[in-house]
Amino acid sequence: MCPSDPVSSGRGAAPPSHRDAQGPPAPAGNGPTVRGNGDLARPPLPDEIVVLRDIKKRFGDQEILKGVNLVARRRETTVIIGGSGAGKTTLLRLIVALERATSGHIFIDGEDVTRVSERELNRVRKKFGMVYQYAALLDSISVFDNVAFPLVEHTRLSKKEISERVLGKLEILGLDPKVVAPKFPSELSGGMRKRVGLARALMLEPPILVYDEPTSGLDPLTSRLVDDLIEEMRQRFGVTSIVISHDIASCFRIAHQAVLLIKGRVEASGPPDELLEGDSDVARDFIRNSAVDVDSLGRVTR
After folding, report:
1. In what order do the strands lie in the sheet with 257-262?
2. Residue 90 contacts residue 100 (beta carbons within 8 Å)
3. pLDDT of res. 302
4. Model pLDDT for residues 197-238, shown as the tens digit of each residue
5. Taking 60 as the threshold, does the pLDDT of residue 21 lie above it?
6. Residue 50 confidence (pLDDT) above 60
7. Beta strand pairing status for 62-73 and 48-59?
8. Cβ distance 266 to 91 under 8 Å?
């Protein structure tokens, strides 16, 4: 898909991990209790915008996800953390409907998307705005055209209406439209590219923003600015944020809920401080081994 789509498998998305592991499934701490097929298919609660129940995913003989249960609530930030090979990228692709689960149920905004046709999945994908690791802007066209792309591809708005929305969104995101809109992505700083990528992700006004490793490779100061931007978008636009990350400092700053994925299973979930102080030795060790002084970090209002 091209970056005009609300979600895309473009340059910012890594291929799925094919690591395997053994052991019993561990449900997310605040996820559903799975008792049978009827319980798996029950409708989510009104404040549960993304719900995964007993999700399994295989690639050939390799089982990547092994009974994942997860609930993301409206207008909150859920950060999915884990090391390389944990299954984070595969999980992300299932959530945004770029892959089909082998078994289990995925509810997006109350709808079980495991039961809809491929054609209907295009409608589901419009509920997501995707923010890639390196913004994934098209270098050959201007900032204006990058941000306008979703509107051009998915709406019948006039050129005047598109222009008003693009320039307005750039301004809301703290960019001077007259200066930035005619520039090419190569002329922007890293922080400006992030904001342009966010502007494009917001153009169709999706209820869910998904961030793929937004602080990867950034220095601590820039990482903090990106965290502040994620929280600003949540508060200003009332979106649900789902963040795929390995950045423990970022997780503690912005997450209402942290979900630790280990070898295809949810090891623990809940507010980050609960993972640090909870019953899971794996979760406590994962956080402590990051060498992040979590006591010195600010927290999002919960």
Report:
1. 128-131, 208-212, 240-245, 77-81, 257-262, 265-270
2. no
3. 61
4. 989 999 999 999 999 988 887 788 888 888 998 999 999 999
5. no
6. yes
7. antiparallel
8. no
Mean pLDDT of the chain: 85
Residues ≥6 apart with Cβ < 8 Å to 112: 41, 105, 106
d(CA 77, CA 60): 33
Locate tokens 């209907």: which residue? Answer: 120
Q: Is the dihedral of CA 173, 176, 178, 182 positive or negative?
A: negative
Q: How far apart are CA 43 and CA 70, in angstroms?
A: 14
Q: Are 259 and 73 in contact (CB under 8 A)?
A: no
Buried b / exposed e over 118-134, threshold 16 CB at 10 Å, is eeeeeebbbbbbbbbbb
In 10 A of CB 203, how many CB atoms? Answer: 22
Q: How confident is the model over 229-262, as pLDDT tens digits? A: 899 999 999 999 999 998 999 999 999 999 999 9
Virtual CA dihedral for 48, 50, 54, 57, nearest 10 degrees?
180
Residue in this structure with the two tokens 């809109």, named with its chain if needed: 181
What strands lie across the sheet with 103-108, from one edge to the other? 62-73, 48-59, 103-108, 111-112
H helix runs in the chain, sequence order = 37-40, 88-95, 118-125, 143-154, 159-172, 177-180, 190-202, 220-237, 248-254, 272-277, 281-288
C-alpha pair distances (Å), 128 with each of 125, 184, 289, 290: 6, 25, 33, 30
- For residue 112, the SS3 value is strand
Number of H helices, E strands in the chain: 11, 10
